[in-house]
Automatic annotation (TrEMBL), chain A:
Residues of the DUF1648 domain: 27-71
InterPro entries, per database record: DUF1648
Alphabetical keyword list: Membrane, Transmembrane, Transmembrane helix
Coiled coil spans: none
Top-level taxon in the UniProt lineage: Bacteria
UniProt xrefs under Pfam families: DUF1648
Protein name, entry field: DUF1648 domain-containing protein
Transmembrane segments: 63-85, 97-120, 132-150, 190-214, 220-242
TrEMBL record, chain B:
Protein's name according to its UniProt entry: GntR family transcriptional regulator
Biological source species: Microbispora siamensis
Pfam families linked to this entry: GntR
InterPro entries, sorted: Tscrpt_reg_HTH_GntR (IPR000524), WH-like_DNA-bd_sf (IPR036388), WH_DNA-bd_sf (IPR036390)
Transmembrane segments: none
Length: 337, 131
């Protein structure tokens, strides 16, 4: 990227972080100020949960009620701002708009929930006599969504950097006495850590459940184990191109693995794809139009002669696509590209 | 990473693999700081044993081109300097010459010819570049 471009991005990042911080501080101030203003008219503990009938069925001490919402908001806003301020997300309109929408929605949800909770408890001597919830539920659902839409509009403003221009095509040596191969591996360390934590939690829970300490633990073991296994498999992807075949394998054990003979590959190219476009990380989409998304950015896209295509997020995809196309052209000189 | 093995290279396999990786680093396909793919992926693609690849990687580390870091794999430390890069290419040149039936002396004579050609062209662009 060129220098003047970087400077404008830095300026935009400052403004973006200022706007996000202003929103974070505003919401936090409301979350603290409103309950404190009504503190002497609220019961302690106050009703914080309503059953399906609309009657209160759960309570919380006043201090905990204030603290939980504020801490939750600080965490959400901190993570949201941190993720949104990363250079790759910041300069691209679509993901930035969704981050802004998420932050606006989360802030709105907390303020509206708190406001209705306080209103229901106001001037009631005891939490069990708090007012019921009926139409308020609609507002609690709808108002944050409206705020999120506004946040998304705000996030749409600002630069949208087109993907970087393709680099120069690498020279491919297809001398018959040479064997050119291409290897690329991409790993997502955070997915590996998530998987380790989930697997450790699953083992610990299974242990406590077996020993009879916490019999209810079994219910969480299966979901945690599934998260662990899926996270492990999707923490890395390896793509290999040799003169005979293309091999794509995932996971630290390189299994599952898929080997495609080159006569079944029609063409390869490079695309910029991001989790926000393909619907998240992992194996996204249906077979035939799938993306193996380990990290956003450069993806190697392969189209099969059957018409299906597969995109894999790997580094150095330009060289891989060039080698694939060169090998295909050598194998089928008649095919014009 | 793009690697090219020479099928006619008579050297031991681990030297061939090391030469291919050295060529890739020299050509700028991988830059200093970049991580190499895991040895077993390289081995699988090149159709050699993983221990052969590990031996080449160790040789390149001893040359100072690669760095091994625990938990972070193998990364490129620096590009081969001009002399090392030229040595690899001279080696390739001699291999290619042998395929055309030329001896080492023929290649030396050829290089001397080329130098003479360059020297007989004073005032040319190439002459200015040499100065």
């Amino acid at each position: 990227m060129t220098d003047p471009h970087d400077r404008s991005v830095t300026g935009f990042r400052t403004r973006f972080l200022l706007a996000v911080s202003a929103w974070a501080v505003l919401v936090a101030a409301v979350l603290v100020a409103v309950p404190l203003a009504f503190a002497d008219r609220l019961p302690d503990p106050l009703a914080t949960h309503w059953g399906p009938s609309g009657r209160p069925d759960g309570s919380m001490p006043f201090a905990a009620f204030v603290l939980v919402l504020v801490v939750l908001w600080v965490v959400v806003a901190g993570v949201g701002a941190g993720v949104g301020a990363r250079a790759r997300t910041l300069v691209r309109r679509t993901p930035r708009a969704w981050y802004c929408a998420g932050l606006a929605w989360a802030g709105g949800l907390m303020v509206v929930t708190q406001a209705f909770t306080i209103a229901a408890n106001l001037d009631r001597g005891d939490w069990t006599r708090a007012a019921g919830m009926s139409w308020q539920v609609v507002v609690i659902v709808a108002a944050p969504i409206a705020l999120g839409a506004l946040g998304r509009l705000a996030g749409l403003r600002g630069p949208d950097v087109p993907p970087a221009p393709p680099r120069t095509r690498p020279r491919i040596d297809l001398d018959p006495g040479k064997r050119p191969v291409w290897v690329s591996t991409t790993t997502a360390p955070w997915a590996a850590w998530l998987a380790i934590v989930a697997l450790a939690a699953a083992v610990a829970l299974a242990g406590t459940a077996l020993s009879g300490l916490f019999p209810g633990g079994w219910r969480a073991v299966v979901p945690l184990a599934v998260v662990g296994v899926v996270g492990t498999v999707l923490s890395s992807v390896s793509v290999r191109v040799v003169p005979e075949a293309l091999t794509v394998s995932v996971g630290p054990l390189r299994w599952p693995s898929r080997r495609v003979r080159l006569d079944r590959v029609e063409r390869a190219w490079v695309e910029e794809r991001y989790p926000a476009q393909v619907g998240g990380w992992g194996y996204r989409g249906l077979p035939g139009r799938a993306t193996i998304m380990i990290r956003g950015g450069e993806c190697l896209v392969v189209r099969y002669t059957s018409g299906g295509r597969l995109a894999i997020s790997v580094d150095d995809a330009e060289a891989g696509a060039a080698l694939l196309n060169a090998l295909i052209a050598r194998q089928r000189p008649s095919v014009e590209r | 990473m793009l690697l090219t093995l020479d099928l006619n290279d008579p050297r031991p396999l681990h030297e061939q693999v090391a030469a291919a990786i050295r060529r890739a680093i020299g050509a700028g396909d991988v830059a200093p700081g970049d991580r190499l793919p895991p040895a077993r992926d390289l081995a699988h693609a090149l159709g050699v044993n993983a221990n052969t690849v590990l031996r080449s990687l160790r040789d390149l580390r001893d040359e100072g081109l690669l760095e091994f870091r625990r938990g972070r794999g193998v990364s490129v430390l620096r590009r081969p300097d001009g002399r090392e890069a030229l040595r690899t290419r001279a080696r390739d040149l001699l291999d290619e010459a042998a395929r055309y039936g030329l001896t080492t002396d023929d290649v030396v004579a050829l290089i001397k010819d080329v130098i003479k050609d360059l020297g007989e062209d004073p005032g040319d662009d190439s002459g200015k570049e040499m100065a």
